[in-house]
Amino acid sequence: MATDFWSSSHYKRWMLDRATLRQARADDLQYVDDPEYLDFLAIFFANLISRLGKKLQLRQRVIATATVFFRRFYVKNSYCETDPFIVVAACCYVAAKAEESPVHIKNVVSEARMLFGKYGIKSFPSDNSKLAEMEFYLVDDLECDLTVFHPYRTLMTLCGKAGGNGGETEAGELGVGIQDGQRYWGTGEGKLELEEGAVQMAWFIINDTYRSELCLIYPPHLIAITAIYLTLVFHTSTRATIQAQTQSPPTSSGASASSSPPTRRSSRTANSHKKAPQDIVGFMAGLNVSMALIATLSQEIISLYALWDRYREDHTAESARSAFAQGQLSAFGAAGAGTSGKRAGHARSGSVLSGTTSSGGTPTTGDLKDDGAGLAEQQVVTPAFLVHLLLRMREARLADMAHPATGRPMAVNKMLERAQAAG
Amino acid sequence: MLDELSYNVVNDPMRIYRAKRDFARKRVTDKYSILGFISSGTYGRVYKAESKIDRVVHAIKKFKPDKEGDIVTYTGISQSAIREIALNREISHENVVALNEVILEDKSIYMVFEYAEHDFLQVIHHHSQTLRSPITPTVLKSLTYQLLNGLLYLHNAHIIHRDLKPANILITSSGVVKIGDLGLARLTYQPLQPLFAGDKVVVTIWYRAPELLLGAKHYNKAVDIWAVGCVMAELASLRPIFKGEEAKLDSKKNVPFQKDQLLKIFEVLGTPDERDWPGLKDLPEYQNMKRLDYSDVEHSYQNRLAEWCQSRIRPHQGGDLLRQLFIYDPDRRLTAYEALQHKWFQEEPLPSKNVFQSVPANQIPPHRRITHDEAPSMMPVPAANSQAQAQIAQVQAQAAAHLSQQLMGSHPLSQQSGRAGSVASFASLSGGTAAGGSGHPRKKARMG
Ligand SMILES: Nc1ncnc2c1ncn2[C@@H]1O[C@H](COP(=O)(O)OP(=O)(O)O)[C@@H](O)[C@H]1O
Ligand SMILES: [Mg+2]
Fold it and tell me: Where are its TM segments located (chain A) (predicted)?
C-alpha cells in the first residue's frame, strides 16, 4: 500500500469533488457575509497548524498530514458548530503518531495554549484529557484512515538527487528507502534535473497548496507535477534555461561537437562528460498526466495566491510579508531568487509567498488588535478578524438553534423545554 | 435559557458536536452479541462476537482504556493502536487478518476482525499435547507457504511485522493462514525517524533475529524472515527452536545483552563468522559476542542445523529452506519472495489452499476455547447516561431532544459512574443484554 496510491484509503475514500465540499460548508455559509471568508479561514487554520507543528518540531510531512486531517474533519463538520482550535491541536497530535514521530500530549497542550493565546483564544483546555477526547472523536470522524499520501514524495522521486543528501533535505522525505516499482504517474524512468533553488520552490508551492482544499480534490502526484510546472514558469533561471532550449535546438554547450543529437532523458548522461542540458519540456510532456488538468490546477493555485495576497498575518517575524507588496507574480520571482538565502532549519517549511524572503520583512504591528473594522477599505483579512468571525458564527448558530423561527430545523423548542425542566 | 446554553457551549464549545456524534454512533453491543472472551494480551482483550445483522462471527479486539484510579479517562490513543488501525485500514490480503471495522466508544477502541478459529500456537499444542505426533510435512509446508505469502504482501507494502510468532499467526476454520497482530508493525517507506527510535525492543525474544540481539540500529524486513524460520522450526519440532532466557531491561530501561538467547542460536547454527556476515563487526554488541564466544565455551560452535533437521524435517528441501531463512547476514537471508520460489514448495506434495485438506477430521485442532472473563469487563455496559439517552430517543425520537439533554446534562465525568465500570463483568453484560440468554454463570466458565 505504501507504494500504491490507487489501493489506498486516501484514493478510495478521500478524493472528493467540489459539490461535496460545497455541501460541507452549507451551514457555515449562513453565518458569513462573504463566502470568501471561509477560504480565508482555510488559509488561517493551515497556517496555524503549521505554526503549532513547528513549535512541536514536526517535520513538514507531519504538518501536511495534520492539515489533511483538519480538512477531512471539516468535510463532515461545520466551523460554526465546533471549536477549530482544539481540532487543530488534535490533528497535530494524531498526525505525529500516524507518521511515527509522536509528541507528548502535554507538549501539544502547552504549545497550543501558548500559541492560541496569541490569537486571543483563552479557552483552550489545560487538561490533557480534553485533547485526548478530541483525538478520539477526530479519529472516528477520519474513519480511522490515518495514512495520507503527499506530493512531496512525487516531487522527490521526480526531481530528487539520486545519491547526495543535501543539507536542506529531510531524510525521510528525500526518498530514502524508495524501492523500485512502477511509478503511478509515468514510466518510472528518469529524473528531472532542476537546480536546487527550483526544487525548493516546487516544494514551497506544495506547502502552499495546503492552504486550500486542493489536497481533498486532486491526487498528490498531480499537485506535485503542477508545482513543478509552476516552478518551470516562474523560477527565473529555470525559465531562462527552458527559453534558451526552446529557441535553439538543445545542443551540448561548450567544447563538444555541435552535431550531437538532441538529448532526451539525459539523466543517464555520463558524469565524465560535460552535461548536456536536459530537455525539460520533453520530460514534462512524457509524464503520463493530463496537461489540461495540470493547467486547471495551476489556475487554482494561482487564485489561491491571489486570495492569500489579501490575508495579513504578520505579528511574528517568520511570516514577514514583503513579497506581498510586489504582487503575486513578482512574488514568485522574488521567492525563486531568494531561495539561496533560506535558513537550514526551516528550509522545508517555507512558502513561496511568505516563507522564503523572511529577511526582508517589514511586519506591521497591531494587526492582532485590529478586529477587522477596517476590512472594507483595506480589502485585507487578518487573523483577529477571522477569530472574531468564528466566534460570531458560533453564537449565531447557537441562537438559531434556540429560535427555530430564524434557524435551522433543530427542533429546539424541545431543547428549550428540556432546558427548563432541567432548571 | 439561552444564557445557560451559551455558557455551556462557551465553556466546552465541542459539546454540541460530541452530543451529535454520540447520538449517531452505533454501539458495539448494538451491532454484535458477545459470545465470550478469547484472550488478554499486552494491549487489550480479544472477544468472540457475532454480528447481529448477518450472524457472522468476528473477533473483537478491545484496547485497554487508560485509567486514573477507578475513573476511565482519555489519555491519548496508544501508538500501538494507531499503528494497528492505520495499517489495517490500508491493507487487504487473503493471508492477513482482515479488519472489518473500528468502533470508538466510551473511551475505548474496538477493532472488529474476521474470526480465525485456530492459530499456530494452538496447532502446535494440539500436536504436542493431544495427538502426540508431529505436524505432517504437507501441513507444515502449507502453513509455511501461506505465512510467507502473507508476509510477502506486507513486505511489498513496506510493512515490517516485527512480532511474528505462533500466537500471532491465525488459521481460519477453512484452513487459511492469516497473519494477525499488527500492533508492532511499521511502515518502512520513507520513515521520518529511524526504526529503532520508536521501539527499543521488537520481536518476542525466541523469534528475534541475531542482528536485533546484537543491537543493530538499522534493520529491515529480514527480521521477519528470521521469525518465519523460527516458526517453521517450531511447527516441525513442536517446541521453540531457540528457547532462550530473556535478560530483562535494567532499571534505566537499557536494553541488556541477550547472551542466553544468542547462545541458544549458536548451539544450532554455529558462531557467526565475519566472512559470512561482513556487517557483524559493526554491531554494537559485537565485542560482547566475542567475549561470550571465548570465555563461556571452549570452542566456537559448529553449525548443526542439518543434524537438527534430520530427525524433524524429513524432506531434504524443507531443511534447505530453513537453512536459508536462518542465514546470519540479513542482506543474504532469503526474502519472502525468494522463499516462496524455493524448490520445496514446487515439489510434491504441493502446498494446499486449505492447510487442513490432508488432515482427517478427527485430527483437526479443536475450536478456540472461549470463557467468560471475571475481570472487570472490557466490553461496554450501557452506562447510566446512555440508558437515559436510549429512553429519550425512544420517547421523543428526536435528535434535538438528545442534544438538549447532553447540553443541559451535568459534567461528563459525573455521568460516568465508577460503579458501572468495575462491577460490570462480562457475564453480567451478556446476562443483561442478550435477548434470551439469561442465567449465564457469573464465574469463569468454559464454553468451548
Ligand atoms: N481474528 C481473530 N480471531 C480469533 N482469535 C484472535 C483473532 N485475533 C486475535 N485473536 C486471539 O487473541 C490473541 C491476542 O490477539 P493479538 O491481536 O495478538 O493481540 P495482542 O496485541 O494482545 O497480542 C491472539 O493470540 C489470538 O489467540
Ligand atoms: Mg499478539
Answer: none
Give tens-digit pLDDT for B159-175: 999 999 999 999 999 99
A82, A84, A90, A91: CA torsion to nearest 10: 120
Residues whose CB falls within 8 Å of the CB of residue A66, separated by 6 or more in sequence, listed in order: A49, A53, A58, A88, A91, A92, A94, A95, A96
Find, in chain A, the residue whose alpha carbon is nearest to that of B413: A129
Chain B residue numbers with beta carbons less than 8 Å from the beta carbon of A136 are 74, 77, 104, 107
Burial class (CB in 10 A: 0-12, 13-18, 19+), A19: exposed
- The angle at the Cα of B142, spanning B306 to B88, to the nearest 5 degrees, equals 115
pLDDT tens-place string over residues A76-96: 999 999 999 999 999 999 999
* Cα A402 from Cα A420, distance rounded (Å): 12
pLDDT (tens digit, 9 = 90+) per residue, A313-367?
A: 764 433 323 333 333 433 443 343 333 333 334 457 777 765 443 333 333 333 3
What's the B118 CA to ligand 1 centre distance in angstroms? 10
Active-site residue flag, B163 = yes
Residue A249, preceding peptide bond in cis (omega within 30° of 0): no
- CATH 1.10.472.10 residue ranges of chain A are 10-141, 151-245+279-307
Mean pLDDT value across chain A: 75
Residue B49, classified by CB atoms within 10 Å of its CB into exposed (0-12), middle (13-18) or buried (19+), is buried
pTM for the full predicted model: 0.81
B423-434: per-residue pLDDT in tens? Answer: 233 323 333 333
Could you tell me if B198 and B325 lie in one domain? yes
Q: Which of the four pLDDT bands, split at 50, 70 and 90, describes residue B26?
A: confident
For ligand 1, the distance from its centroid to the CA atom of residue B45, given in whole angstroms, is 8
Burial class (CB in 10 A: 0-12, 13-18, 19+), A108: buried
**Higher pLDDT, residue B384 or B308:** B308
Q: What CATH number is attached to the domain comprising B378?
A: 3.30.200.20
Check residues A95 and A255 and name the one with the higher pLDDT.
Answer: A95
Q: In this predicted structure, what is the pLDDT of residue A186?
A: 53
Atom of ligand 1 nearest to the CA of B42: 22
Q: Give the ligand 1 atom nearest the CA of B180.
A: 17
B399 and A82 within 8 Å at the Cβ level: the answer is: no
Whether the CB of B4 is below 8 Å from some CB of chain A: the reply is yes
Dist. CA B39 → ligand 2 center (Å): 9
User: What is the predicted ipTM?
Assistant: 0.82
Provide the 3-class DSSP secondary structure of residue B44.
strand
B41 close to ligand 1 (CB < 6 Angstrom): yes
Q: Nearest residue CA, atom 18 of ligand 1?
A: B181
What was the pLDDT predicted at B194? 72
Kindly report, residue by residue over B363-372, the tens digit of the pLDDT.
999 999 998 8
CATH fold of A151-245+279-307: Cyclin A; domain 1 (1.10.472)
Average pLDDT over residues A221-226: 94
Residue A117 has pLDDT above 80, yes or no: yes
Ligand 1 atom with minimal separation from the B41 CA? 22
Question: Which chain B residue has the Cα nearest residue A108?
Answer: B76
Residue range A10-141, CATH number: 1.10.472.10
Assess contact for B161 and B224: CB atoms under 8 A: yes
CB contact under 8 A, B86 and A102: no
In this prediction, residue A352 carries a pLDDT of 77
Q: Sort out which chain B residues have CB atoms less than 8 A from A62's CB and list them.
A: 192
Predicted confidence (pLDDT) at residue B137 exceeds the cutoff of 50? yes
Which ranges of A160-290 does DSSP label H, i.e. alpha helix? 196-209, 214-217, 220-234, 236-247, 280-286
Please tell me if residue B75 touches chain A, with a CB cutoff of 8 Å.
Answer: yes
CATH of the domain at B281: 1.10.510.10
